[in-house]
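re the bet — no i am not wrong, look at it urself. input seq straight from the record:
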Amino acid sequence: MRIAVLVYGRLNHCAEHYNNIKDSIGRQNDIDFFMSSDNSDESLLNDFIRYYKPKLYTNSPIHYDYDIEIYPGKRPESNIHRMTCHFINKNRVLSLFEEYIRSTDVQYDIVMSLRIDCVFHNNFVFNKLEENTIYIPSGRDYVDKGINDQIAYGNMDVMRKYNSINIVNLLEQKLSIPHSENLNYANIHLNNLKIERFNLGYYLHR
C-alpha cells in the first residue's frame, strides 16, 4: 500500500523514533512523509530531513490574529497557544500534501495524521478502509465529548476533512469548548464522519 504520513508539531526524538514508526506502519508499504512544525531546533529539523526524507515540509513560525481565550469553557489544563499551533500545523501539513498531489497526481491508499513523539508497542493493522470513516485509536479521549487527537487515519477525502479543522468556526457556532480533544470531536461530527476505534499500544516520548 502507498501511505502518506502527515506529521505535525514538535520533532522531539524524531531520529530515535524512526525505526519504531517505520516498523509499526509496516516497511512493506510505500511510506511518504510530509511535515509541518514551527520553530523546531535546526538539529531536530536536520534529523527529520535525513531520516524521513519528507516530500514537503515547513518549519516556519506560526502567526495568528484571533484570540481563543475569549471563548467560554476553557479547562485549567489547556495551553491555548500550544493547542492553536497544533491545529494550524495540521492545516499546514495538509496544504503541503495537497500541493504535492496537485503537482504529481500521486494517489494514496491511506493517509495518516501523526505526532512524531509516539512510541508504538504494536503494529498498525490496515484492513479495507470504509468510506467516510476516520480510524482513531481507543483511549486518550480525556474529556466528555472529546476524542483522541494524536493519531488518525483514513482515505484521502476523509483526512482532508479531518485535518482542515477551523477552530474559530467551531467555537463561534458553540459546537465545542476551547479544548483540543473537544474540538477534534466537534470537527469530526461537523463533517459527518463515522468513527472506527482500534487498539494501538503507544506512549508519548516528549
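see?? DSSP finds six helices and nine strands in the chain. told u. also The first strand starts at residue 2 and ends at 8. so pay up
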